[in-house]
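Handover notes (outgoing to incoming on-call)

Open items:
1. Glycosyltransferase family 9 protein: sequence verified, structure written out, both below. Nothing else pending on this one.
2. Nothing else urgent.
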Amino acid sequence: MRSLVVRLDSFGDVLLAGPAVRAVAARSSHVTLLCGPRGADAARMLPGVDEVLVWEAPWEGFDPPPVSTADVDALVTRLRAGAYDTALILTSFHQSPLPTALLLRLAGVGRIGADSVDHPGRLLDVRHRRRAGRHEAEAALDTAAALGFPPPPGDDGRLRVLPPPDTSSLTGHGPYVVLHPGASAPARAWGPHRCAEAVALLADAGHRVVVTGGLEETGLTRRVSGDTAVDLGGRTSPRVLAGVLRMADVVISANTGPAHLAAAVGTPVVSLFAPVVPAGRWAPYGVPVILLGDQSAPCADTRALTCPVPGHPCLDEVTGQDVVRAAHKLIQERQS
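Glycosyltransferase family 9 protein structure tokens:
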């Protein structure tokens, strides 16, 4: 069976789809993952994926492209050439799978399943409805099972990526803690002054600290690292970042892609979680986690990209000492 899995949004979202992808791969001869450009690097790290197709959907992302007949036609042609027997469309609880399902119908995909609140007409063969409050990783697995792809025997359902490289040449030898100060949306970020405070306090407590960030975050990582931490801002590809996170004692991160990548390599996470989306659906999955941040703040469930509350109190009232205590607790639990 040739199968297609679709997850069109971000890096972390694609990682959360990983257990469902493995379920599909266990009963398929070939699995293609159709994703957006922000999720492509994650897609290439998932076990069970034979091919990655990248397409930027006009209904996804912070700045989606305009609708283009030529672009849509090219995608449909490409999918038709894949001759897929079945397709699993994975979306977040607030997204509709139906635009994607329409394109897959036009491409002649044999059987299509998705989680859909909206009536799908003839667009879906299997319409699943997720259980209330289900974590995104679990909801994806449930949808795969509804389409005929239960978890394979012996699979624990946790996040997973292909083995990352050795990164000791970047981090140095010996134990360390990772702090990732950036976030995909400002509303989810812990303040730089708080991050710098945590770096100093962790160093005072005897920890080596490694600060990570993307190419566009080098100013932030430099500020947060100061003269204390190892600054890896802009120096890690996603695969290399996976290696850095895998060897850390604990990862400190907001609700953003690297927190899910830490979970995928089995590292505990101190999660600075702004409640703009529910932690029950989006917290790091399958590893020990300590959640920090006021989950009852006025911004809760707003899905805001920029904090709507002056002073960003849900996160910036979390202190560096709070983070150090949480990190110590996770490290002690891991060592016991």
